[in-house]
């Protein structure tokens, strides 16, 4: 066992002495040591109850013949950090989480790992760290929250609350209705109830085979979720005790086939645009060569068969669960043949094909068939053109048909805060393209999510007449013609930095185009006089981050060599 490094031999007497201080007995030194990476934190709705999950996991590991060692990672709630400089820390937190997993697991030579994430950057951060450690690993998330409901029965969620701010600012919603939404939009613990980033990543953990069926859809704090937690804990001990335990090492499960399958299901379910950012970084940690251009190739072959909030406000993760879950989605996608790698191995010991063979769609109004798809192509698209030579990302699942092809006049802002003030101040009108720049990984720094400005645009009734482009990114709760991850970013001299108010910007989702319609000579003149906007960075951590981070088309991964 890997843990023999810290527990075998006379020279490990001090090590065993320290371990005995934690409660270990003689018999424990013959058992596998299992790391329990818990992301419990009180301020995040999807995480405040995870301490109890950790207790259940440790008890089940002991019963199965392992020795659990629980440790924690940090977490940032993107919704609470939204719209102020707290959001600068959200994406960078992914790196701290990955580093903490690697540090604890490798410093103590633990034999296996069970990860308990739920929200936002925590899932990809744990995946990245687990890939570095490369021991048998299983993921079990906290689970999604229930949808909220207004008094009249209308389903609502966090996206409703953000968009309500725009309606209220525009005089279209009363104080009373705004307060009702505030109190009812997030009714329970769990990751926010739509197909936002957290639930997108927890769903993709199923597609990648690193989690049990239902990981992305079974509600938090329910008996069904607790049973899943217990099953996962017992399974990690089985994996580590296997005489051929190396076959369960993380990189043997989360490999090139798993990355491909994740993008396939992402397309079928119209996941958050943040999944592109995270899966590119996860692929790097898995040592999988995955070029961003492959995403459009996958999208062309996958029908968009499940619409979930924010793309469809009446459908939430619990609805997907009742309709057959992610297994039903994967089974339907696989009917086309040659799209899903059904021979990919999963942590339960079965192939993906074996896992989904008996899955059925229980409600075709929630999970559509390929023949009745929302779109014959996937719910995400990568755009290219002179404005995005290295790519930009758009969640096509959240765009109305009339905005798939659009030309508009640029209205430029050099920060999210400028944009929020400008939108509230009615500087943006129908036919405009809002440009928010210097918010990329390096320029932000930290690549803020833009839910506040996009929700304002929707709330003010401009969602079908205004587009938005940014080198920043969006919350999974964003909808509309919102194009993010523009690369190269403004801070590294990307063309987005040279746009001026009134310039014509053209986008065409179906041809994957993002174009600035300004002549080459004019742009060259602008570049001669261009000076990058330099933001004052007071945080030592964010200064280090800005020096090391790559752009979004490279997953905003930190460079390990200069």
Explain this structure.
With 562 residues, the chain is of the alpha/beta class. Helices cover 37% and strands 12% of the residues. It is built from 21 helices and 14 strands. The protein has helices at residues 4-7, 13-21, 50-63, 78-81, 90-108, 122-133, 158-169, 175-184, 197-207, 223-241, 250-253, 256-269, 274-285, 294-299, 317-322, 325-334, 352-356, 416-424, 451-459, 520-529, 540-548; strands at 33-38, 67-72, 112-116, 137-139, 148-149, 155-156, 381-385, 388-394, 405-413, 432-436, 467-470, 482-487, 504-508, 513-516. The protein has an 8-stranded mixed sheet with strand order 7-8-12-11-10-9-13-14. Helix 19 (451-459) links the parallel strand 10 (432-436) and strand 11 (467-470). Helix 5 (90-108) runs parallel beside helix 6 (122-133) and helix 7 (158-169) runs antiparallel to helix 8. The chain is globular, with a radius of gyration of 23 Å. The two termini are 36 Å apart. The mean pLDDT is 95.
Structure described in brief:
By secondary structure, the chain is of the alpha/beta class. The chain has helices spanning 4-7, 13-21, 50-63, 78-81, 90-108, 122-133, 158-169, 175-184, 197-207, 223-241, 250-253, 256-269, 274-285, 294-299, 317-322, 325-334, 352-356, 416-424, 451-459, 520-529, 540-548; strands spanning 33-38, 67-72, 112-116, 137-139, 148-149, 155-156, 381-385, 388-394, 405-413, 432-436, 467-470, 482-487, 504-508, 513-516.
